[in-house]
Task: inverse folding
C-alpha cells in the first residue's frame, strides 16, 4: 500500500510533484530507489522535449577554495528561473563538483559523480522540476601559485563573472582588475596572446581604409601601425586604459602595485547565443483568441 508518508518522502528526495511521486511508487510497487529512477527517466523524457529551445539566460558564478577557483556559465530559458533558489543551488553544486575534480572538458564535468548520480543527471532532473531547458555551457578551473591572488567579481547578480589571477598584489587590486574587465570586455590579457592571423586580417582592413582615404602607400603603412596599437588598446586587458584611472593602462596599474596579470576568464551570460525575439503582445493575443 502506498502511504502519504511514502509520497512525501519521495517528493522531499526528488522535488517532483506529489502526483508524479504517487505514480512512481505505484509503478514500482513502493520501491523508493526504483521510484527515483522512474522519475529520473520521466525527467529525461520531459527534458528531451525541451532540447530544441534556446537557453540564453542564466547565471555565471565563481567558487574559490584555497589555490583553486572555478568559474561557470549555466543557462536557462528565462531570467526569472535564473533567480530561482533551486537553479542557484544547481549552479553551486556544479561548481563544487568541478573544483573538487580534474575534469578538463564539458563531457568530463557532466559525468562527474555527485550526491545523486552525475552532474548530467542533476541537470536533467532540474530541467524536469523547473520546466525549462537548463544547460552547462562552459567552465574553467584555475589553479594559482602561493604568490598569486584571485580577483573574483560578479556583476548584476551573475550576468557577468570575471576571474583573474594577478601575481604579488592584494585581493583588492586583483578585484579592481576584474571589475575593469567586466566593464570593458577585453578579449585577451596581453598583445602576445592575440593570434597572428587576427592581427594580419586587421592590418589588411586598416591599410585598405588608409588607402581609401587617399594616403600614399608608405604613409598608409605608418598609419596602420598606429591603428594596430589602438586595436591592442581596445582588445587587450593590459593595454586598456584603467577605468578608475584612465591616465594609466591596466597593466601599469598592476605593476604600480608590484604585480602582473597572469590570466583572465570573463563569462557574460548568453554572449554569442542567438536569442529568440519574444513578442509578448502577440503571445497574449494568441492566448485570448486561442
Result:
Amino acid at each position: 500500500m502506498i502511504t502519504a508518508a511514502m509520497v512525501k518522502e519521495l517528493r522531499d528526495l526528488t522535488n517532483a510533484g506529489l502526483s508524479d511521486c504517487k505514480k512512481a511508487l505505484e509503478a514500482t510497487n513502493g520501491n523508493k530507489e526504483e521510484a527515483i529512477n522512474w522519475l529520473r527517466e520521466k525527467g529525461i523524457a520531459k527534458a528531451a522535449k525541451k532540447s530544441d529551445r534556446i537557453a540564453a539566460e542564466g547565471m555565471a558564478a565563481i567558487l574559490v577554495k584555497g589555490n583553486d577557483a572555478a568559474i561557470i556559465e549555466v543557462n536557462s530559458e528565462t531570467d526569472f528561473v535564473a533567480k530561482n533558489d533551486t537553479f542557484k543551488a544547481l549552479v553551486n553544486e556544479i561548481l563544487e563538483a568541478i573544483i573538487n575534480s580534474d575534469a578538463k572538458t564539458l563531457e568530463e564535468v557532466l559525468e562527474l559523480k555527485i550526491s545523486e548520480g552525475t552532474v548530467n543527471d542533476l541537470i536533467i532532473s532540474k530541467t524536469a522540476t523547473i520546466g525549462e531547458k537548463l544547460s552547462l555551457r562552459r567552465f574553467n578551473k584555475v589553479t594559482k601559485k602561493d604568490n598569486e591572488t584571485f580577483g573574483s567579481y560578479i556583476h548584476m547578480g551573475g550576468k557577468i563573472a570575471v576571474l583573474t589571477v594577478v601575481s604579488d598584489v592584494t585581493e583588492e587590486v586583483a578585484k579592481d582588475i576584474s571589475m575593469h574587465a567586466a566593464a570593458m570586455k577585453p578579449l585577451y590579457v596581453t598583445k602576445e596572446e592575440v593570434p597572428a592571423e587576427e592581427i594580419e586580417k586587421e592590418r589588411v582592413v586598416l591599410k585598405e581604409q588608409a588607402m581609401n582615404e587617399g594616403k600614399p602607400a608608405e604613409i598608409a603603412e605608418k598609419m596602420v601601425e598606429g591603428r594596430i596599437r589602438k586595436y591592442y588598446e581596445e582588445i587587450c586587458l593590459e593595454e586598456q586604459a584603467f577605468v578608475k584611472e584612465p591616465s594609466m593602462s591596466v597593466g601599469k596599474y598592476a605593476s604600480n602595485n608590484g604585480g602582473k596579470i597572469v590570466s583572465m576568464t570573463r563569462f557574460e551570460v548568453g554572449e554569442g547565443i542567438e536569442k529568440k525575439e519574444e513578442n509578448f503582445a502577440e503571445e497574449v493575443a494568441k492566448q485570448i483568441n486561442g
Q: What stands out?
A: DSSP finds twelve helices and eight strands in the chain. Strands lie at 57-65, 68-76, 135-143, 148-155, 160-167, 241-242, 245-249, 260-268. The first strand starts at residue 57 and ends at 65.
